Each structure stands twice: as structure tokens, then as C-alpha cells.
């Protein structure tokens, strides 16, 4: 009887049975009478033990000649082994070599420089560490989408090519769009979501966004993925409550489903287990005061840089909301504070442990005259925003939303030193290959 093809992640119900695995050799060690084959198949990792006396000699010799990353079909009996990371081993009875590499795999156990690994990112993705990170990323995205769907948010895809500037003219990737003039790679889907919220009430988009900032920090990419909810009749406080609940939900889901991956990354999960409501709230004014007492030379009225965010978040064990920034450092569409004309109703949610901003949000300006005034103040092209202003001309309503950067969230949850590991193909000011 033919042994069924099973993925490593699904081996548990087949204990004591003979199965077939299809995957790759990621490590191997041998003695004269036994081969220990480390096998991966994309769903997990397992050790296959091949004893010389248990297989034909040609099969044993074929295994001896395997290079790292050879693709194979392996048949064997599933045995429980509590010492193994997967909880099981495979007693190998047969092996078919699908393809053996023509040369030695370039990524070895020795220490490699980051540039070498990024040049070989297409191969580096096969490593156990990168698989752990990307499985957590997958869980983060799935958790976000399920959370929003279950709360009545409709997915609305926003355009990547746009004629409207969402976050200010700095940091735009610009191109000529046939005979239509200039177009830009989207910095955000928000303006389009505001129109969709007028139609469907609660909406969100999820996709790539682009910032042409020449930033070299460990928190910045030129292309990243962002999830952006927008909700009709949500005010500033409703908006922050949604952010808090979403972040707590995502962290809880990762803790529930990705414990092995967090353990492999040596992540201190006790720090993540603290991520429960309520989160602390401070105003921009209070944040500047805290920073200045801690030795920062930030003047009042400036936006926070990475060092300021790091210093601030080190004072808290949970994510912290910083609310109500000066109007001059925030986007034109944010609603004016009802008690102070110099401030807007916005928030940044900063992750603890020095990871900084993971969410930026605001209540949107629903007053036509004020919004038009802000567009003129910032010398933005009014004609490009005529459709956006229609939302205030025809049935204006209070509404709020935010953008959460997936890579920053993943970097914090995984405890990564640099955001470039949180995305399969990182794009920075120095890198567009592979």
C-alpha cells in the first residue's frame, strides 16, 4: 500500500504509520551506519533517521551524496520524540532524489554579512529564522483581516497610482501618466477610503504603500504594507479604542498560534503577554515635557524622530498613545482640536521596547471651509482634491481612521533589530534587488 503524502505540520495523527514527505534537505550529518537528514517542506522541520540496515545500499549511498537544499521524496514511519522540535522523527525506509544541487549552497552555518544575505534574499528566505518571521507575519495579517471582517468592515481596494497627495509632497515617487500629467505611487489609501466610508460606513484597505524618504533608520522601508480602517461616525476616542482592541487581538492571536516560532526567535513572550487594555494615553504636550526631562533637546512644535520615540516608549511596558499634535507637523485632513486651534485630533500609537510608531490615526476634518483652508495653507493643488472635497459638500459626517504598518508591527512582535527582516523582499534607498 502506498504511503500517503503528508505535510510535516500534519504528522501528529499519523504516529506509528508510514507516510511520504516531499521537501528539501536543510542539513545532514552521517556516521558510517546512519544518516540524520534534516528535512523541511515549508510547513515545518523534522529529522529523518536512515539506518544502513533498513534501506537498500543504493538508497543509503544516494542519501550520502545529497547536498544541502536537495529536493527529495522520503518515505518512513512517524515516531514520537519529545526531544525533537516538532515532537516527531521519521524512521526512513526509502528516499527518492528529485533534484540534487549542481553546486554548494551559498548560505552556510558560518556567519554571513547582512549585505550578502540581502543579495541572496531569495535563498535566505529558506532559513528557519526567516520562515518563523514570515509565519508570524502571515498570522498578523490574517488576524487583522478577520478582526475587521467580523466587526462589519468592508474591504475596499484603493488605487496604487493616484493623482492626489495624501501625506504631503515630500517623499513621493512620481511618474508621468500618459497625457494626464503627474501621477504618484500611493502613500496611503485613506482619501479613497473616506469616500468609501460615506457609502458603506465601515471600510478598510490593505496593500503596498510607498514613501520616497531618504531614511536610513532600522524602522524605514520605501515600500511597505499598511492596513487602513476608516469608520463613519467614529470620533477621536472611538478611533483609539479600535486601535487598542485590534493590537491586543493581533498579539493574542500570535501568542496562541505562533508559540514555536516565537520560541525559535528567542522572543520574551512575557513582554507580549502584558499587551492587554488599557493602554496609557499622553498628550503631545506631555510627551515633549517627558522627553525634555529625560535629556532630549526636542523643541516644542517639532515632530518626534526615531530617537525621541525610542526614549519615550522605554518609559512604558505597553503601547502608548500620544494624542493631539500641533497642526503644523500633521497632514491637512486632520480635524482641528475643538479647544485649541493649534492642535489636531490625532494620535500615534508607539510600541514599547523602543520600537516606536506602529499606528498613525486621526479624526478627519469634516468641515468644508476648514479643510479647504488647510489645502490652500499647504499650497496643495485644489483641482486634485475636488472629488475629496465632495465628501464634505454632499452629506458630511464625522469619521476617523488610521494606518497600521504591518512590518513595524511584525518587527515589534518578533523582537527584530531591523524592519527589513519583517518583509519578504525589503526595499530601501540602497536596495531594489532581488
TrEMBL record:
One of its GO terms (cellular component) is cytoplasm. It is an enzyme of class 6 (ligase). InterPro entries: Aa-tRNA-synt_II, aa-tRNA-synth_II, aa-tRNA-synth_II/BPL/LPL, Asn-tRNA-ligase, Asp/Asn-tRNA-synth_IIb, NA-bd_OB-fold, NA-bd_OB_tRNA. The gene is asnS. Keywords: Aminoacyl-tRNA synthetase, ATP-binding, Cytoplasm, Ligase, Nucleotide-binding, Protein biosynthesis. Homodimer. SUPFAM superfamilies: Class II aaRS and biotin synthetases (SSF55681), Nucleic acid-binding proteins (SSF50249). Belongs to the class-II aminoacyl-tRNA synthetase family. Its EC number is 6.1.1.22. It catalyses: tRNA(Asn) + L-asparagine + ATP = L-asparaginyl-tRNA(Asn) + AMP + diphosphate + H(+). This is Asparagine--tRNA ligase. It is found in: Cytoplasm. GO terms for biological process: asparaginyl-tRNA aminoacylation. It holds the Pfam family tRNA_anti-codon. PANTHER family: ASPARAGINE--TRNA LIGASE, MITOCHONDRIAL-RELATED (PTHR22594:SF34), ASPARTYL/LYSYL-TRNA SYNTHETASE (PTHR22594). One of its GO terms (molecular function) is ATP binding. It comes from the Bacteria. Its main location: cytoplasm.
Amino acid at each position: 500500500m502506498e504511503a500517503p503524502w503528508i505535510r510535516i505540520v500534519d504528522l501528529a495523527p499519523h504516529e506509528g504509520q508510514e507516510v511520504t514527505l516531499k521537501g528539501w534537505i536543510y542539513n545532514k550529518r552521517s556516521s558510517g551506519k546512519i544518516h540524520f537528514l534534516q528535512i523541511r517542506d515549508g510547513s515545518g522541520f523534522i529529522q529523518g533517521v536512515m539506518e544502513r540496515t533498513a534501506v537498500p545500499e543504493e538508497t543509503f549511498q544516494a542519501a550520502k551524496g545529497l547536498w544541502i537544499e536537495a529536493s527529495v521524496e522520503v518515505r518512513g514511519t512517524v515516531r514520537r520524540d519529545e526531544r525533537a522540535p516538532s515532537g516527531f522523527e521519521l524512521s526512513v525506509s526509502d528516499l527518492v532524489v528529485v533534484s540534487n544541487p549542481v553546486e554548494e549552497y551559498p548560505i552556510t552555518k558560518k556567519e554571513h554579512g547582512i549585505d550578502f544575505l540581502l543579495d541572496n534574499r531569495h535563498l535566505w528566505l529558506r532559513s528557519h529564522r526567516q520562515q518563523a518571521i514570515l509565519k508570524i507575519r502571515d498570522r498578523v495579517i490574517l488576524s487583522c483581516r478577520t478582526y475587521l471582517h467580523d466587526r462589519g468592515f468592508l474591504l475596499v481596494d484603493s488605487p496604487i497610482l493616484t493623482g492626489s497627495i495624501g501625506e504631503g509632497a515630500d517623499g513621493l515617487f512620481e511618474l508621468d501618466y500618459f497625457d494626464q500629467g503627474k501621477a504618484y505611487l500611493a502613500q496611503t489609501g485613506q482619501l479613497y477610503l473616506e469616500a468609501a466610508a460615506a457609502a458603506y460606513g465601515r471600510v478598510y484597505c490593505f496593500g503596498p504603500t510607498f514613501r520616497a524618504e531618504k531614511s536610513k533608520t532600522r524602522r524605514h522601508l520605501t515600500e511597505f504594507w499598511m492596513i487602513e480602517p476608516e469608520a463613519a461616525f467614529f470620533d477621536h476616542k472611538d478611533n483609539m479604542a479600535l486601535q487598542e482592541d485590534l493590537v491586543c487581538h493581533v498579539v493574542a492571536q500570535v501568542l496562541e498560534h505562533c508559540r514555536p516560532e516565537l520560541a525559535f526567535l528567542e522572543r520574551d513572550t512575557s513582554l507580549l503577554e502584558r499587551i492587554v487594555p488599557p493602554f496609557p494615553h499622553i498628550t503631545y504636550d506631555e510627551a515633549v515635557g517627558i522627553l525634555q526631562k529625560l535629556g532630549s533637546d526636542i523643541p516644542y512644535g517639532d515632530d518626534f524622530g526615531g530617537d525621541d520615540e525610542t526614549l519615550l516608549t522605554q518609559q512604558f511596558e505597553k503601547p502608548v498613545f500620544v494624542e493631539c499634535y500641533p497642526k503644523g507637523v500633521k497632514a491637512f485632513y486632520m480635524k482641528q482640536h475643538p479647544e485649541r486651534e493649534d492642535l489636531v485630533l490625532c494620535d500615534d500609537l508607539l510600541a514599547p521596547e523602543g520600537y516606536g510608531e506602529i499606528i498613525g490615526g486621526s479624526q478627519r476634518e469634516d468641515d468644508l471651509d476648514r479643510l479647504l483652508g488647510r489645502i490652500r495653507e499647504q499650497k496643495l493643488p485644489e483641482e486634485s482634491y475636488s472629488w475629496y472635497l465632495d465628501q464634505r459638500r454632499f452629506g458630511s459626517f464625522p469619521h476617523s481612521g488610521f494606518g497600521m504598518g504591518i512590518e513595524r508591527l511584525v518587527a515589534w512582535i518578533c523582537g527584530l533589530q531591523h524592519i527589513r527582516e519583517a518583509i519578504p523582499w525589503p526595499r530601501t534607498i540602497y536596495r531594489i534587488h532581488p
